[in-house]
Amino acid sequence: MLDRRQLTQAMRDPHHKGFAGETLGRYEILATIGRGGAGQVFRAKHSELGSLVALKVLLQQDPSEEAVNRFRREGRVLAQLKHPHVVGISDLGEENGIPYLVMELIEGQNLFSVVRGPGGRLPTFEETVEITLAVAQALVYCHESGVFHRDVKPNNILIEHGTQRPVLTDFGLVKRDPNTKGAASGPAGISATITHAGRLVGTPSFMAPEQFDPGGEFGDPGPKSDVWSLGATLYFLLTGQPPFTHENVVDLFTSVTTEDAPPPRTVRPTIPAALDAVCLACLQRDPDKRIGMRELADRLERMQGGLKEASARRGMKQATFVVLALLALVALDLLVLNPQRGSALLRMVTGAEAPPDEGDEADDQPLDAEAVKELVKQGKAHYDAKRYTQALPLFARAAKYESSAGLFWVAWLHDPNREHEGIEADPKKSLDCYRKAKRLASEESTRERCEKQITHLLETHPELGQ
Fold first, then answer.
1. How confident is the prediction for the chain on average, in pLDDT?
2. Fold of 356-465
3. Residue 356 pLDDT more than 80?
4. Which CATH superfamily is domain 109-310 in?
């Protein structure tokens, strides 16, 4: 059973191997998912129900009463929020001196790992809008419920495997607005950006100016602070970096509070102008000039529709280009290079089937050895796709040029021991072709294969040996 002493020792030991196999209350710890400044999250299993959960524990050696209250407040707030893009909670408790939360287990990666992790990539513009819209809708719901997140950033947004559902997590810095209808009662907690000990609360690269300087030039933090943080997250999805990239917090404070964010298009020129504009609307230093969360969601929703239409138009243009390119190849082959391949390309473009007597109609055109091999290759492609009636004429024409491969496939298609839709079994023709293929084959393996089929055919149809 995990206790506070073990947790404290593990925090002091950089080589600690984790807590897999330990239990905390009714939960068995399976693996460590992640660790933040105030909490550690485990993948765990309910000992009786067997359900998988995310188990978050308060990760402090000697947690203050304020820290414990803040941790519990996160659980109480999450219990009131029911939204598809907000992580759900199922339990809150304390065991052996360790406060814990039990949350919905989201199998997936956070946005930071999606972009900057191993094999990471920038999402497409359509994906970026979809993710940002989902989080904006979740925050609209939170704000209307009297809850400010205060730590919106890529690390706190998970993308669920399979469904690709974005989920907002880590409400450890959440603040309630007691003046909002529906807000739960309870301690208002710490200041929006600075604790009573004077420490910054939030992640500097994604914090609004008023979070750096609460009560100062830009006023007190509120819902618009989440807008700035979501705008900084959007900037990260578009460019792979936050709006301001100083490593020194003092320099970062100066830039965030005195400078305009550089347009995302200065980093990545291919960003659509409308997406660039909505990102900058989130990053206005003055909260009164900053876009509201609901307006942001509305603009992203309209933009999503426009991007889908543009994507559909691009798809149609690409399909048209492919068809035109194929038709150009058809014309070139039909008139100059390879009339037979041109006919095959034409059938592919138009969807027409090859005529059954194709091999006979082309007899006027003599073929060299390479062209005969190409016939067999095309016939095999049709055979693999189960287009047997289109494969047979190609094999038959190759057989007329004494191709052992063509003869074998003609025999195979007419073999009564095989079933090929649209091809009539012909034991006599099959046997004759197998025998001729064996005689003409240059490779021992082909001759052995023919002999095996001849033996099988004579065993199943003894009348052929008379």
1. 83
2. 1.25.40
3. no
4. Transferase(Phosphotransferase) domain 1 (1.10.510.10)
